[in-house]
């Protein structure tokens, strides 16, 4: 009995770091449970196992504020009765816009964007979009109209990347702002350039094939004395604009242009740059053992480029899964290059998966290549950035539309500062009175008949005074 007590005493004094109880007659029936390893998925890496970029996250949060402001502008502009809306009605739009605070706090936080005033007749608080913001929105629309030919080329490149040469219009409508398309792009682009696009279905657009027999391409501008097309003996003619690139020139991805520059300027070998992508790892990224070797092998891995259709990748072949994934990286890289701000929301990018042939998990691909893409989770949506296009939270090569949107973002960042530049309170009241009187232009209001009677009475009294003189 004493021997048994000593044995149990030794068992109780075992350290917690030990592997377990030794095998014996007292624990032979004890079930040994193994600790489960944590599963590494896209969601777990998204939450903890990744290096965050504070500058791109800050930019995303600011762009979310701009998006909410533009949503308010769209809702206010949709009301045709007046250019302003009462704060009581705006408070109902809180869930539509997606605010975590009250609408009044949000509107008064940006006085350069929203003007909150008291209605002179009804004596209620109302809100309208500021003059600066209205001018910038109009400037953005004008810039988009000026870049109409670039939008045509952008849609054609998307159609060239697609598997069947078609794209759903619903996806273009959702990503309209990212691609820089006008609101009425279906009429102003797809129907206007019927020689470039054709409607396969009510919501599916395709590109007209230019390889048909008996089809010639001519330029819009004609020199003096040029004969008519019918006199030239051309059966079917498709009109194009001056300086339009050929399909062979359009079928060159942006990453291939970067590879050519790297090959010429840095004197790198073709083996190193033929299938490589620009890599810029985030600050603080922890490089594990063997990561550089895996990245070097992945950069040299051949794949089918976005605009190529000659080779079919089979996933079950040797290296087919990695090549299939690298093709998805190339398509996603080219899609981000076609956007205005080199960024797009994941929920909008999902609508192009079937058309572009991306049959892999998008978040898995994005998180697996942190040197090429960055996934920001600020706000209610997830946004993908092209890392090579940004530096310190700004676009390296800006464009016309990006410059206008940056001005809008500056108004958001101004907040409540520099309010002296705004019009004085007296001018706001005068302007609100004029707006209040012009609300029902073209219509009649209660009491208008009294004004006409008083005017007639005044005219008669003036005539009597003149007759007496």
Automatic annotation (TrEMBL):
Protein name: Uncharacterized protein
Species this protein is from: Rhododendron molle
Organism domain of life: Eukaryota
């Amino acid at each position: 009995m004493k021997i048994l007590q000593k044995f149990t005493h030794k068992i109780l004094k075992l350290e917690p770091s030990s592997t377990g109880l030794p095998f014996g007659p007292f624990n032979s029936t004890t079930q040994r449970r193994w600790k489960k390893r944590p599963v590494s998925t896209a969601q777990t890496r998204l939450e903890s196992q990744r290096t965050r970029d504070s500058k791109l996250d800050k930019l995303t949060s600011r762009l979310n504020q701009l998006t909410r402001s533009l949503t308010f502008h769209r809702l206010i502009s949709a009301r045709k009765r007046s250019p302003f809306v009462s704060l009581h009605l705006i408070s109902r739009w809180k869930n539509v816009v997606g605010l975590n605070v009250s609408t009044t706090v949000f509107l008064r936080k940006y006085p350069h964007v929203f003007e909150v005033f008291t209605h002179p007749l009804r004596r209620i608080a109302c809100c309208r979009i500021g003059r600066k913001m209205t001018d910038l929105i109009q400037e953005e629309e004008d810039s988009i109209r000026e870049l109409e030919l670039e939008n045509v080329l952008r849609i054609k490149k998307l159609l060239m990347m697609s598997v069947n040469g078609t794209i759903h219009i619903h996806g273009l409508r959702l990503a309209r702002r990212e691609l820089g398309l006008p609101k009425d792009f279906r009429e102003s682009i797809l129907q206007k350039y019927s020689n470039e696009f054709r409607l396969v279905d009510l919501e599916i657009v395709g590109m007209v094939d230019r390889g048909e027999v008996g089809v010639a391409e001519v330029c819009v501008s004609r020199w003096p004395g040029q004969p008519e097309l019918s006199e030239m003996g051309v059966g079917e003619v498709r009109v194009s604009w001056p300086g339009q690139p050929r399909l062979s020139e359009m079928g060159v991805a942006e990453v291939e242009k970067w590879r050519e520059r790297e090959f010429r300027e840095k004197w790198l070998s073709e083996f190193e740059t033929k299938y490589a992508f620009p890599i810029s790892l985030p600050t603080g990224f922890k490089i594990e053992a063997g990561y550089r070797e895996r990245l070097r092998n992945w950069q040299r891995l051949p794949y089918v480029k976005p605009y190529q259709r000659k080779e079919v990748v089979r996933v079950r072949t040797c290296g087919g899964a990695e090549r299939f994934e690298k093709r998805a990286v190339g398509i996603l890289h080219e899609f981000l290059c076609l956007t205005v701000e080199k960024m797009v929301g994941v929920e909008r990018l999902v609508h192009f998966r079937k058309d572009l042939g991306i049959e892999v998990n998008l978040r898995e691909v994005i998180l697996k290549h942190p040197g090429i893409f960055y996934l920001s989770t600020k706000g209610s949506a997830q946004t993908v950035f092209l890392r090579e296009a940004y530096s310190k939270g700004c676009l390296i090569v800006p464009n016309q539309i990006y410059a206008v949107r940056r001005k809008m973002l500056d108004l958001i960042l101004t907040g409540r500062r520099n309010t002296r530049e705004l019009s004085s309170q007296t001018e706001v009241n005068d302007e609100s009175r004029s707006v209040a009187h012009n609300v029902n232009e073209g219509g009649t209001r209660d009491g208008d008949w009294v004004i006409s009677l008083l005017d007639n009475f005044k005219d008669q009294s003036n005539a009597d005074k003149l007759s007496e003189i």
